[in-house]
Amino acid sequence: MKIKQHNSLVLIFLGIIFFSGISCEKKITVDFKNDGKEFLIVDGIITNENKNQVIRLSKSVTSLNSKPLLVSGADVSVSDGVFAYLFKEDTLGRYVSDLKFGALINKFYTLNIEYENKTYTAQARAVPVLSQNSLNYVPYNDSLYHFPQAVAEFNPEEAAMYEINADWSFVPGYENFSEKETRAKMFFYILKTIDVNEIFHPAYEQIYFPRGTQLSVKKYSLSPDHEKFVRSLLLETQWNGGFFDTEEDNVYTNLSEGAYGFFAASNVLSDSIIVQ
């Protein structure tokens, strides 16, 4: 089985574990301006999957490439207007709901965080997700496949995010390779708008995987606010450094003052595919 091709795909890789050939690095000097302020960073997507939902909290960093400090001791809850789900801190620095639940389509959910005598809030709703048929892997050579880098058109019908976990650790010939060499996580986005920065974005690393690789695919719906966050994030990261850079700005957030990041609710479709 293959995932069918759709010419409305916007490609982007974030947080990838690389298994590839040679890459080029260039040392640069960046004037990192820091006014000493510290912000709460929120990373959380609740989905329609009936599970213990997860919210991640950290603190903003004061220098490039610094490892974010996890936030401990916060009181976190998500309310649907009738019931409030409490999130408890675990040993991994995450906040996990004490009960399993799934986000309903078009229902509003309110995130409430109490931390260091401050209150932070955000509101999100999940929109429907269309059928999962928009990605295509192709042969790179006689033994490897990849998702091709291509200029994509926008899709006015939907905004979505694909999360693909690739695993070829069990494929003959790869049994003795390390985890970093046999697994990868990839993210792809479909947006309802198109930017010149998207068309002329800088080159980025390709991920190559052999026949027999298992692809675990999740497709997330993006609400209008969530899509706005993704677009602003791409402009400052993956699309930055091209021919038509825009003026730098803060990434869009739906969180109240003093916090950045995004709280989202999403409808999800899942599939598992073996590369043939």
Textual characterization of the structure:
The structure is a single chain. This protein is mainly beta and 276 residues long. Helix content is 8%, strand content 34%. The N terminus is likely disordered. The protein contains three helices and 17 strands. A hairpin with a 4-residue loop joins β6 and β7. It folds into two domains: 158 residues, no CATH class; 86 residues, Immunoglobulin-like (Sandwich).
Short description:
The chain has 276 residues and is mainly beta. The protein contains three helices and 17 strands.
Features:
nine-stranded mixed beta sheet; mainly beta; 2 domains; about 35% strand; 17 strands; Immunoglobulin-like; about 280 residues; 3 helices; five-stranded antiparallel beta sheet; disordered N terminus
Count of helical regions: 3
Query: How does the major sheet shape up?
Result: 9 strands, mixed
Radius of gyration: 20 Å
Q: Gap between N and C termini, in Å?
A: 7 Å
> In one word, what is the shape?
globular
Number of domains: 2
